[in-house]
Amino acid sequence: MGIPFPEEYGGGGADTLAYVLAVEELARVDSSVAITVCAHTSLGTQPIFMFGTEQQKQEWLPQLCSGERLGAFGLTEPEAGSDAGNTKTRARLEDGEWAIDGAKQFITNAGTDISGVVCITALTGEGEISNLIVANGTPGYEQDEPYRKMGWNASDTRGLRFSGAACPTRTCSECGAPGCGSF
Fold first, then answer.
1. pTM of the predicted structure, to 2 decimals
2. Longest dimension (CA), the chain
3. Concatenated DSSP letters for 120-138?
4. Rg of the chain's alpha carbons, rounded to an integer?
5. What is the pLDDT of residues 24-46, one digit of tens each?
6. Counting CB atoms within 10 angstroms of each CB, which of 8, 59, 145, 155 has the fewest?
C-alpha cells in the first residue's frame, strides 16, 4: 500500500514505475482491488505526503503505508460533481478548529472497517478552496451506506456528510499564519 513512499514513513521506497506496475498486475486479476489501491495511494495518501506537515506525516503515513488504514479523497459533490471550482462544502474557523459542513459523493475507501482518513476539499474563505484531513470517527462526520454498483464490488464507494465536523487547524508552513487551512 505504500510502494511509492519513503521507508522512513513505512513505505516501500520504490518509484512511481514500480507502483504503476503493481497496480497493472492487480488490475489483471481484479480491477476493484486495483482501484482501491489507487484511490488509497494516489488520492488519500499522496496529498498528506506531498503537502502535510511533518506531524501529519508521522501520524498518518505509517498506518496508511502498512495498509492498517485506508485513505480516501473527497472532491465530488452532489451539486458540483468533480468541479473543484464549484465546491459547496464549507469550513469555518470555530474555537481554533475548522467546522465542516457539506456533502461528498462517490468517495472510494471512506467507509470500510479500516478507513482511517479522508482528505476533502472545502471552501475556507471567499474564493479559497483548501484540503482538510478528516479522521474517521470525527464527530459530525457520517458515512452513507455503500453504493450498490455494477462491477468493482470489492471497492467501497459511498457518500459522506459533514455537519459541524471538527478538524484541527495548523500553522501554515508557507506564510506562518495560524489556521490557514492548507496542508
1. 0.87
2. 49
3. EEEEEETTEEEEEEEETT-
4. 16
5. 999 999 999 999 999 999 999 99
6. 145
